[in-house]
Here is the input.
Amino acid sequence: MTPPATTRFAPSPTGFLHLGHVVSGLYSRIMAGEGGRFLIRIEDIDTTRCTPELTAALREDLEWLGLSSDEPVRRQSRHLPEYQVVLKTLRERGLLYPCFCTRREIAEAATQTAPDGSLVYPGMCRHGPVHAGREPGWRLDMARALEVLQGVPGWHEIGHGRVAGKANAFGDIVLARRDTGVSYHLCVTHDDALEGVTTVTRGRDLYEATSVQRVLQDLMGWPEPTYAHHALILDSEGHKLSKRDGAEGVRVLRQGGWRARQVREHPLVRQALEASLPTGAYSGG
Ligand code: GLU
Here is the structure.
């Protein structure tokens, strides 16, 4: 038996619902346990990639699947001013600095890769702007943040115990993108705290992101959730199932005559869930 928790499934509607989402949604619901709370959140801050049509389609497919939120679904794009308050707080504490570099300039100057595969910012704007005049993004001064926290925060991963964080290997991450004014790490940690999420469930592809998110939680004095990262559905070559792989789209299966229960019990879904949950916790969708 899983003890009651508040979990959330937080898809970004950049494409149609696919079997990878089904795994994440079911995993999150099962991890909430009997008497727990399961929440759905739409992470649609990137308004160029997350269209209203894709959001509507995602919600419709979730409903068809029988995955419903225990509380009203939160849509991040409707709460942008709340994230600006967090940025203001961090800025006033001297933990952020404006960065005017383009993606290309960073790519040309970067020499290191962070644990999540992103490039470590080489620090051109850390001691003052190099290309002022452009619209800036805002970066976290990671060395300073870790000094304030007096160490690198780790986390509790269900089934593995305490895990050491690697925030120092990420460098100065972007907290406010130049185009959207916010970022994934900022919004996700704010919302997990606001919604009282006690167990963050998501795919192993976001495992490394936890190091960065733990820093933000500690800086803001938000509670530390526990984490549970589930196995991913991999294609025959061992790559993560991508939204572009049409055959695994829930819509495609649905149009092909599949029932919701059959999709929830799809062999690829079953395999990923059985690899991730305690024995016996998955007994079909
Ligand atoms: N919105 C993110 C995604 O779809 C997931 C966020 C999370 O679970 O932390 O990849």
Notes: The chain has ten helices and ten strands. Residues 1-72+231-285 form a domain with the Rossmann fold fold (CATH 3.40.50.620). Residues 10-12, 43, 188, 202, 206 surround glutamic acid (CB under 6 Å). The two ends are 16 Å apart (CA to CA).
